[in-house]
Amino acid sequence: MRRLPKPIPREKLLPLLHDVPEGVFTPVFTQACEVVDLFVGDCLAHLVHELALGGFSGSPEDLAHQRGYSAHKTPMLHLLLDCLELYGLARCDDKTYEVALPAGHEPLPQRYHHWVGVAPTAEPALAVQRLGAEVFPRVLSGELSGEEALFSLAHLDLWFSYFSNANVHYAPTNSLAALALSRSVGKHARILELGGGGGSAAEAAFASLLATDQAPALYVFTEVHPAFLRRGGRLVRQLAPPSCRLEIRPYDINLTPEEQGLSPQEFDAVFAVNVLHLAAHLVEALTQLRRLLVPGGALVLGELIRPCFSAPVHLELPFALLQSYQQVQLAPRVRTRPGFLCLQGWQNALHEAGFDEVHVLPAALQECFAHYPGFYCAALVAR
Ligand SMILES: C[S@@+](CC[C@H](N)C(=O)[O-])C[C@H]1O[C@@H](n2cnc3c(N)ncnc32)[C@H](O)[C@@H]1O
Question: Which CATH number is correct for 171-382, 3.40.50.150, 3.10.310.30, 3.30.450.40, 2.60.120.10?
Answer without folding.
Answer: 3.40.50.150
